[in-house]
Specification:
The structure holds two protein chains of two kinds. Helix content of chain A is 36%, strand content 24%. Chain A is an alpha/beta fold. Chain A folds into three domains: 233 residues, Rossmann fold (3-Layer(aba) Sandwich); 158 residues, 3-Layer(aba) Sandwich (Rossmann fold), CATH 3.40.50.300; 77 residues, no CATH class. In chain A, the strands form six sheets. In chain A, strands 6-9-10-3-11-12 form a six-stranded mixed sheet, sandwiched between helices. A six-stranded mixed sheet of chain A has the order 18-21-22-15-23-24, sandwiched between helices. Chain A has a four-stranded antiparallel sheet with strand order 2-1-4-5, covered by helices on one side. In chain A, α5 runs parallel beside α6 and α18 packs across α19. Chain A starts with 6 loop residues before the first strand and ends with a helix. About 4% of the residues of chain A have low confidence. By secondary structure, chain B is mostly helical. In chain B, a hairpin with a 2-residue loop joins β2 and β3. In chain B, α2 runs parallel beside α7 and α11 packs across α12. The longest helix of chain B has 28 residues. Chain B starts with 13 loop residues before the first helix and ends with a helix. The relative contact order of chain B is 0.19. The chains are: A alpha/beta, B mainly alpha. The interface between A and B is medium-sized, with 35 and 30 residues.
């Protein structure tokens, strides 16, 4: 990048309540590139972005954008200067049409009135240029998250944004949707615009980005082209240490685990409910971790909800410890020793305003209650134990859980279930949206629980994470079990085969996929 | 001694504790400021009579407000409390005027409250089983309840003089009206219930994140049912106090508009109308602030009509402060 970059942030400092959050942070992005910004949660990525977009004010440093020194006071200033930000929680107006959302606040007018025909025509043209043909008159909320993201992108493009910041935009998308979105991003890049891309998914960064800035502890620790950073180097730079925890257990260890596993804890035959789950059969033994693999929308979450009694099956057999079970509600499943860590931590997990203490003991609370009164000292004992054993970082157990980082919230929720002494753990995307360090912690905890004799069924979108933790895998596709993989077949390539082609895929294909992965 | 419902007994960490306390301290500060203002500028303010007058004015609002706080904590609202008061108020005189002696008085205290509680069960049924939005569900009895009370009494005013029954409102213990002591006892017990009991925790979880509560095996429907039933029962009790004060029961008047006063007290007291919080003492303080405002204006010769406008201003200010608190 020989020419002056479009955006150049140098020596940025900011402190919150006397604690330095950024120290000499740097970020420079050139026009026509997709730039990855990565770091663990708390590394300072969001803070840096918020300074750039005018949400926070820096205490020192310079920002040059588009050839001028700038210091935006409000997000509106930044937007008007040509910086557009797309957050994970998309800020569109759900009940208004796609076209309205794209041109909101900048509607073309005719005789002082909004010219709807032009609005709709231009919106349709814009989306078509992204390869997207949808009815722009329909409300945004009727479309999938991926399409909403693209509408947000279209809005950015139509407002002539020179720099588009995408903050964790892909975390709720499946692979196909991600690919669609990436095509749009590449088009923006080829158009000469700059894109800054924040994500925890390493594979995506390699697929999309040209250069990368790595942050750690409020400082910029690396700026490099993506090609010169291999995955291991990227992760170690981000963590500031070599990562033994991400090294996979090899298949021999997995097989040894399976050999010494206990009796069946839960089994299902032909489980079905609605359109999402059509025919799921699986079993989970004590002392093993089974990976539930499948694309987003393949019915993983729906299957887990059936196993937990959160939804009721229309057909099929469910047995716990050899006895058939018909759960009316999660309460029944909990009574049989089943625990369910949900995929959506915010919507279905934490009670944001309540303390960590109350959140952690939520499910086991009846056991800590005598004649209706909660025994606070017992509650404390349990919380202190888990804070210590799971390494939960907090100021006080009485602080509201919303103040904790994502990874620590996840640990509290895991502890919520472990405190019930379950026999079976259902973990739906336990590492979603948490940083690499916390991911490694969660993986380690799951292994320890399995070794202690718990039955674990877990799902993960990233196959790498799934194969790292699970001893064997059950693959579902369109709500149907298509493969059970163990031993030599328990690897990412075989799982991908099963996801793509269903049962009985040729093993040569698996090898080819694996080779292709290594070549890239 | 500020009610800090969800954060009982903070661990010895000074900064955390300080930050937590803010929740209702602002409301207490407002109340204290108003008291100080009156001590300086209002004649005869510092007297037992003023104290009793102001407190007896808020008793019914506070008792209804306690129940309202529970319902609001689940993320709901109860518009039918005034109607529940009217039903209880209509039934009681029919009992003690037709059945002589202690049995009549005893029945007059129990049956009307049970009848009011039945209204709460009906509300709870609509909300939990038929999934009707609380504001619509309780609108049913808001409209029909007062009608039921009128049908029961043939629409006529029942005047009475029954010292045994009316002791609940007119009796005094050591110079303090019994109804004030009853109100304080209820505030204390419900504060304790919200802070210390399993039901209290479940109440806050149900309103704080209902999906999480369901997936944690918490009987959210039962929690809501209890909240609506308790709210209506408390309204019934308030109805008994209200008719005792007036020595008469008019189904058209008993508890008229109390739902709005109660909701205002809850909101001014710092309980978010979105649910997940329950500051019982906050509701007491909220009711006192509204009452003291009205008293101050009256004592300085400003008409009641103007007081209503100021009451609205206070509610707006309270909601604004809450929004900022996020």
């Amino acid at each position: 990048m020989a020419q002056t970059p479009l955006l150049d942030m140098q020596d940025i400092d900011i402190a919150f309540g006397g604690v330095a959050a950024l120290k000499h942070a740097r970020l420079s992005v050139a026009a026509g590139e997709v730039h990855a910004l990565i770091g663990q949660n708390g590394a300072g990525k969001s803070t840096l972005i918020k300074i750039l977009t005018g949400a926070y004010r820096k205490s020192a440093g310079t920002i040059r954008f588009d050839g001028r020194e700038v210091d935006f006071r409000t997000p509106k200033d930044a937007r008007e200067a040509g910086i557009s930000t797309i957050y994970q929680e998309i800020n569109l107006v759900p009940f208004r049409s796609v076209a309205e959302n794209i041109f909101l606040g900048r509607e073309p007018r005719r005789f002082g009135l909004i010219d709807w025909k032009t609005v709709q025509r231009r919106a349709a043209e814009l989306l078509e240029s992204f390869g997207l043909r949808i009815d722009v008159k329909k409300p945004v909320r009727e479309y999938s998250t991926a399409i909403q993201q693209m509408v947000a992108l279209a809005r950015a493009v139509s407002s002539d944004a020179k720099l588009v910041i995408m903050d964790e935009s892909t975390s709720s998308l499946d692979e196909r949707e991600v690919e669609l979105l990436f095509n749009v991003v590449r088009r923006l890049r080829d158009d000469g615009r700059a894109v800054t891309f924040v994500s925890h998914r390493l594979d995506e960064l390699y697929a999309l980005c040209d250069r990368v800035t790595v942050m750690r502890d409020g400082q910029t620790v690396a700026e490099n082209s993506m090609q010169e950073m291999d995955k291991l180097k990227l992760v170690t730079t981000m963590l500031g240490r070599t990562l033994a925890a991400v090294v996979h257990e090899d298949s021999a260890v997995k097989e040894a685990n399976l050999a010494k596993r206990g009796p069946v804890v839960l089994s299902t035959q032909g489980l079905a409910a609605g359109a999402k789950v059509t025919d799921v059969s699986l079993d989970v033994h004590a002392g093993e971790a089974v990976g539930l693999a499948g694309l987003l929308g393949s019915g993983r979450t729906e299957t887990m909800r059936l196993l937990f009694g959160a939804d009721r099956p229309a057909r099929g057999v469910l047995a716990v410890g050899g006895e058939s079970a018909a759960f009316k509600s999660p309460k029944d499943a909990i009574a049989r020793g089943i625990a369910y860590l949900t995929e959506d931590r915010k919507a279905e997990g934490i009670v944001p305003e309540l303390s960590v203490r109350d959140n952690l003991t939520l499910v086991c609370l009846p056991a800590l209650t005598k004649r209706g009164v909660v025994d606070v000292s017992k509650q404390r004992e349990i919380v202190d134990g888990f804070v210590e054993s799971l390494g939960i970082k907090l100021r006080s157990p009485d602080q509201p859980i919303r103040e904790l980082s994502g990874g620590n919230q996840q640990k509290v929720l895991l502890a919520r279930w472990l405190a019930t002494h379950p026999r079976l753990l259902l973990l739906d995307e336990p590492t979603r949206g948490i940083d690499v360090g916390a991911k490694a912690d969660v993986a380690k905890i799951v292994r320890e629980l399995r070794d202690a004799g718990l039955a674990v069924l877990l799902s993960a979108s990233e196959l790498e994470e799934l194969t790292a933790v699970a001893d064997r895998a059950v693959v579902i596709r369109d709500g149907e079990t298509v493969a059970r993989l163990d031993g030599a077949q328990m690897n990412e390539a075989s799982i991908m085969d099963a996801i793509a082609y269903g049962a009985g895929a040729e093993s040569t294909l698996a090898e080819a996929v694996e080779e292709a992965r290594h070549d890239r | 001694m500020i009610d800090d419902t969800q954060r009982a007994a903070p661990i010895a960490q000074a900064p955390v504790k300080k930050k937590r306390g803010v929740a209702i301290q602002r409301e207490v500060a407002v109340l204290l400021a108003m008291i100080v203002f009156n001590l300086i500028f209002t004649q005869h303010f510092l007297s037992l009579q003023t104290f009793n007058v102001n407190l007896t004015q808020v008793v019914t609002i506070v008792i209804v407000g306690i129940g309202m706080t529970l319902v609001v904590a689940t993320g709901g609202i109860d518009l039918s409390v005034g109607a529940s008061m009217a039903i209880a108020g209509a039934l009681a005189p029919m009992l003690f005027m037709n059945i002589d002696g202690p049995p009549g008085v005893l029945l007059a205290f129990t049956l009307p409250v049970i009848a009011a509680a039945a209204c709460g069960v009906f509300n709870g049924f609509l909300v939990t089983r038929l999934n009707v939005q609380p504001i619509v569900a309780t609108l049913v009895l808001f409209i029909a309840g007062r009608g039921i009370a009128q049908v029961v009494t043939d629409g006529s005013l029942q005047a009475f003089n029954n010292p045994a029954f009316q002791w609940i409102a007119l009796g005094k213990v050591a110079g303090v009206p019994f109804q004030i002591l009853l109100m304080l006892a209820l505030v204390a017990s419900f504060t304790w219930i919200v802070r210390k009991t399993l039901f209290g925790k479940y109440l806050l979880v149900t309103g704080g994140n209902e999906d999480a509560a369901y997936l944690s095996g918490i009987p959210t429907a039962r929690v809501k049912m209890i909240a609506y039933t308790a709210c209506a029962a408390l309204a019934g009790l308030a109805g008994l106090i209200s008719i005792s004060v007036n020595s008469s029961s008019d189904a058209n008047v008993v508890g008229l508009g109390v739902e709005l006063d109660a909701i205002a007290a809850v909101a001014v007291g710092g309980t978010a109308l979105t649910g997940g919080k329950a500051y019982i003492t906050g509701t007491l303080i909220g009711a006192l602030i509204i009452q003291l405002l009205r008293y101050t204006l009256l004592a300085h010769g400003i008409p009641d009509a103007a007081a209503l406008v100021l009451k609205a201003a206070i509610i707006i200010a309270a909601v604004y402060v809450q929004r900022k608190r996020g």
